[in-house]
Amino acid sequence: MKQGLSLRVSQHLALTPQLQQSIRLLQLSTLELSQEVDQMLDDNPFLELSQDEAPREEFGLAQADTPVREDDREIESAPDFLSPRVEETRTDPAPDTEPGATSEADEPLWDGDGSVEMVADDGEWGGDAPARRNNLGEDGEMDATELARSQESLQSHLHRQALMLRLSPEDNAALRFLIESLNDDGYLDDSIETLALGLAGHDDEQLEELVHRFTVALRLLHHLDPPGVGARTLGECLTLQLQALQAAGEGEEACDTALRLCAQPMELLARRDIKRLAQLSASTEAQVKAAIALIARLEPKPGRRFVDVERNVVVPDVIVTQVGRGGQARLRVQLNSDVMPRLRVHDIYAGALKAHKGEGHQALQQRLQEARWFIKNIQQRFDTILRVSNAIVERQKNFFVHGELAMRPLVLREIADELGLHESTISRVTTAKYMATPFGTFELKYFFGSALGTETGGNASSTAVRALIKQFVASESPRKPLSDNQISEMLKEQGIECARRTVAKYREALRIAPANLRKEL
What we know:
Structural class: alpha+beta
Oligomer: single chain
Number of domains: 3
Largest sheet: 4 strands, mixed
Order of helices and strands: HHEHHHHHHHHHHHEEEHHHHHEEEEHHHH
Number of strands: 8
Strand content: 5-15%
Radius of gyration: 33 Å
Helix content: 40-55%
Strand order of the largest sheet: 3-2-5-6
């Protein structure tokens, strides 16, 4: 083989640690960003929360409208957060190396990529944001409102009732075991035999005793509040509630018919097949309709009201308010200061590092630079969110005046071209970021929608079409609900071309039942 030298020119795309962090922070939600900040505060000693106000970093909206370089736009087009894979090699530390010390080669370089001049201004950013508080008061006690919100569980509610029953220790233990075996909906998922087998194993005598104890305990459980608790099937749950109504002397005739309907396949009841149910239950159609109306008032999930549902409070990143009245009215877009972390570089540590240059100075200098870049990347994240939000509000002005019926079609490319960013950046910004408007709080992606053709040659937003469908259904006759085909025809009368299948898709997205289930009997 003949050896030789050759020169080859190629382009190589490299992501600096700063740019990697900027992309990652941009796609985080408010909760994820808070967790990221907490993690960085624990890891980096040069970063701290601040209580005092300070001027903003010179890295924000003043430079936000500068044109984006072509290579940066290529980086933004990455479908997800990219990070170069580095092969980690485990080596034995040198004898004179302290445990836990890191070499310069193992740390990412935070010296910058040359695109922004680094200024040693370690003041805080986001000075208007209040400090985070926990749920504890100054004395460490929980707030009284939090204690009032604590909800009693289904098991606690049933155990409290069981205390009023005079039971033997064995029956009391069996009842407690069944109560703890209920799911969140109040149903008993496992059969009596399965529960007994899990305790008795292969002891047949003990198995028979446990089955007897659990059978007695189940009958006691069925008489506790809420009615229907401890059922194995939906039919049994409805039957238990109907029996409770009978015992209270409410609607005896309707209860008798409803009990016979609950003994039939639930599919017939779900489809409201009145003729078939009337034949199977030996009742008239009028009686079946009255019984179905009674069943509709029952609770299919007895434990629903005891479930401590996680309250996911949406905190908006952007707040839109209307300023002025009449012809002078305008929309003001501002960031929510409550979600903006107040960070700054620790002045004492940074000053000490500058004054004393000893062993490990280079590694500490990188951590200081990492803290500075973290603050600037967070600032850039919120500045980008604000720019995108301003562009959205400018294009959807009619929505903020007339509501979702006035929504216009909008795609990511329109905002990307206007701001000089890539579509993937706009997608990251609008995901899990929320905007508070006079009509409610919406995710930024809500303002983007595909276009449907109109008779005049224009376009209608899919969001506006869904709002029209919701409006049509809300004003329909309960006895003659609108079918998907009828809604499609009504949209055509409004000049919007929307096929029946598209109407069905939008209706399902709005969680609106089909016409046969919306019909009032």
